[in-house]
Design a protein that fits this description.
The longest helix is centred in the first third of the chain and has 22 residues. The chain is elongated and about 85 Å long. It is of the alpha+beta class. It has 5 helices and 22 strands.
């Protein structure tokens, strides 16, 4: 009898132990949930920081980063042509001998800048046997010298040619149907082939004749030679604006960068946060592109040194992956 009660007691104890183990919560469940939460949070943080960087204001200023609000504008329909720089008629003059005689002194050479009235040479007159001075008739640059010391010059012989190159003509060659819609008064952007520097001017006239060698019409503009590096005889490229199409939103081409196969612009929020925005683009010209979607009017777009922002974002993404 006692043995029977012992067996019953052991069986009851075993059942209670089994029930206790089945109802006790597993310590692995909270750990798995925590790991899942951490992974989800990591992905969320990664998504939040992708395409975004923080650049302190002083560093941005020192780096040349500049922003401007996205606004409406126009996209120019332009014809690209080539042309030639030539001196303006009436701005070339010669310094000539008034009386025949030998050259005693020369005080200037090709390339020198001279002012009107500046003495350039001295000639001994065969008539009076006294020296007289030959002066510059206009201010400009000496483009030719036709005299040597001791050489005999006849009356009216040119010693120097002087050109005022402060302004030049740009003769642009227009072909085919373009001659029908290019008229005086439209904007022209002229670019030097040597260094890519551009100047904007206005088409002054379309000449009535045709260039014999090329069978092209010649459109002429006046160019201000501000830096003195536009040289007569040099070939140039030019863009002639024949029409302008309004666009609701435009950004400078300098604002555009490629990231992950998409064109993006960078928007600054606050004082120092920059975020990449993929944009869909429409028409574009030599300086601006039409934005169809991706940003809104008034957004602070990085319009200068956008590649610096791109580099900073790319660096941050690479560090985050590691």
């Amino acid at each position: 009898m006692n043995l029977q009660w012992i067996v019953i007691a052991l069986a009851a104890s075993w059942l209670l132990s089994a029930c206790s183990q089945s109802t006790q919560p597993s310590s692995k469940a909270p750990q798995a949930a925590a790991e899942m939460h951490d992974g989800t949070q990591a992905h969320a943080d990664e998504a939040e920081h992708a395409g975004r960087t923080v650049i302190p204001l002083k560093i941005a200023i020192d780096s040349g980063i500049r922003v401007a609000p996205a606004v409406s504008g126009t996209i120019a329909d332009e014809d690209e042509v080539q042309g030639l720089l030539t001196p303006v008629d009436g701005r070339i003059a010669q310094a000539v001998a008034r009386f025949p005689g030998p050259v005693r002194y020369l005080r200037a050479n090709v390339g020198d800048r001279v002012r009107a009235g500046q003495p350039l040479a001295s000639i001994e007159s065969n008539l009076s046997l006294t020296n007289y001075s030959v002066s510059a008739p206009i201010s400009g640059v000496i483009t030719a010298r036709n005299a040597q010391v001791g050489g005999a010059m006849g009356e009216g012989a040119p010693l120097f040619e002087i050109a005022d190159l402060s302004t030049l003509w740009v003769d642009l060659h227009i072909f085919g149907r373009d001659t029908q819609h290019i008229t005086a008064g439209v904007p022209v952007t002229v670019t030097r082939m040597t260094d890519g520097v551009s100047e904007t001017t206005t088409l002054e006239r379309v000449l009535p004749g045709t260039a014999t060698a090329s069978q092209s019409a010649v459109a002429r503009a006046v160019l201000h030679n501000r830096d003195g590096l536009w040289r007569p005889g040099a070939a140039v490229k030019a863009r002639i604006a024949v029409a302008n199409t309004p666009a609701a939103l435009v950004v400078p081409l300098a604002a555009l960068q490629m990231m992950e196969g998409r064109e993006v612009v960078f928007i600054r929020t606050g004082e120092d946060t920059y975020t990449a925005h993929a944009v869909d683009l429409g028409a574009r010209d030599a300086s601006h592109a039409e934005v169809l979607s991706g940003i809104s009017a008034g957004d602070a777009v990085v319009v200068a040194q956008s590649y610096v922002v791109k580099a900073d974002i790319s660096k941050g993404s690479a560090e985050h992956e590691h």
